[in-house]
Amino acid sequence: VTPELMIKACTFYTGRLLKNHFYTWRERTIPPINGVDPLVEKMETAAKYDNFRLQRCAFHHWHSHVKAQKEQQKNTLLRIQQMFQCYKLMIILNKWREKAIYKNKKRENELMLKHELQLRKWRSKLKLRVSAKEEMICPKQDISEVFLVGEIPAFDISQLPKRAILQIFSYLGLRDTILCGQVNRSWLSMTQMNSLWTGIDFSTVKNTVTDKYVVSTLQRWRLNVLRLNFRGCVLRMKTLRSVSLCRNLQELNVSDCPTLTDESMRFISESCPGVLYLNLSNTAITNRTMRLLPRYFHNLQNLSLAYCRKFTDKGLRYLNLGNGCHKLIYLDLSGCTQITDSAMEILSAKCHYLHILDISGCILLTDKILEDIQMGCKQLRILKMQYCRLISKEAAKKMSSIVQQQEYSAADPPLWFGYDFEGKPLTAERDTIQLKDSELTLKESAYSSEEEV
């Protein structure tokens, strides 16, 4: 290759390179006259996309707002419909009630007129019979004997209004009601009214009633019984378990029942959670029963544990477990010699609705309990603390300004309490010693009076 050709090739190659780079630079720097700038296109697409996102966000908010408004309108319409239906039902019920009251009054008036007519007829017949017999009787015979001899026409008590029959039979006891049911069928139907068996008092027939009759009665009227009284009844454990059949029971009195045990109370408490009044005084219950009370009787208002000496402070603390018996209004702990200040402190901290408290004969309680009661039981109205020797007169006087009614005595417990001032049970020897001491004091007073004379 000659140097000339080499120079020629180099110039051609450099010129070609310059031409290519110049064209590319010109295309980059000088925009085409008839074409569109790509940056402008990109800006336009970016603006469109941004506007689309803004519109989408605004539409989403608007859609959610409209949806909420529609749901609100739907709910308001439903409420208006419900109110309209309730108002309509109230109008219908009021009209029905007015018609029912009118019909009942009309029926009662008709029955009263019927009874008055029957009484008038009966009086007229009685007068006729008396007048007819006066002519035939001797002059020595008294007129009162004529009334006794004359036959009284039958008067059916079942024709009376139901309210009057219930009022009449409500004054009868259980034994008299059973005897009335044995007269005839109409009297039996009258004694089988549901309202008569809402409260059954077995304590009036505790010496004659049998376990079989108690079980059959509770099985028959289990849905109607609201009040049961077994005070002093000696019943078997199986019979006491039958109380659990009464699911709607509200008042239960098993005081002075020697056969009541923790096991029978377990069956009763598991099946009758609606009890409001419970009387367990003078029974042999222990801490097991005290543990069951707050577990099942959440609405218990009146509780009597008088002379129940087999439960301890631990059992009394159980009343505050869980929901507990925090709705107590009346609490009777009289004669419970085992109770101390620590248990009463915890109890008073939770029983804020307590109105009546009886701690008579609780010989271990001191002035501290009054401070705890004053802090916890602010609604207390009546406080009884007879024969509490460790409670001072100053503390009792201070407490009397807070409660409305108070009974306080620092004397020794009487003999019928069954224990002395230390809580020890009285024996026959102690009773005789106390009687001898009282006789000696009487003699000394007599001697001193004679010497003075």
Annotation keywords:
453 residues, alpha/beta, 15 helices, 7% strand, disordered C terminus, ubl conjugation pathway, F-box and leucine rich repeat protein 13, FBXL15_LRR, Leu-rich_rpt_Cys-con_subtyp
Question: How is this structure best described in words?
Answer:
The chain has a domain at 1-32. It has helices spanning 3-29, 38-136, 143-149, 162-169, 174-180, 185-191, 211-220, 237-241, 262-271, 287-296, 313-317, 341-350, 367-376, 393-400, 428-452, and strands at residues 199-201, 227-229, 251-253, 277-279, 302-304, 330-332, 356-358, 382-386, 405-409. Residues 137-153 and 428-453 have low confidence and may be disordered. It has 15 helices and 9 strands. Helix 9 (262-271) runs parallel beside helix 10. It has a 9-stranded parallel β-sheet with strand order 1-2-3-4-5-6-7-8-9, with helices on one face. With 453 residues, it is of the alpha/beta class. It is elongated and about 180 Å long.
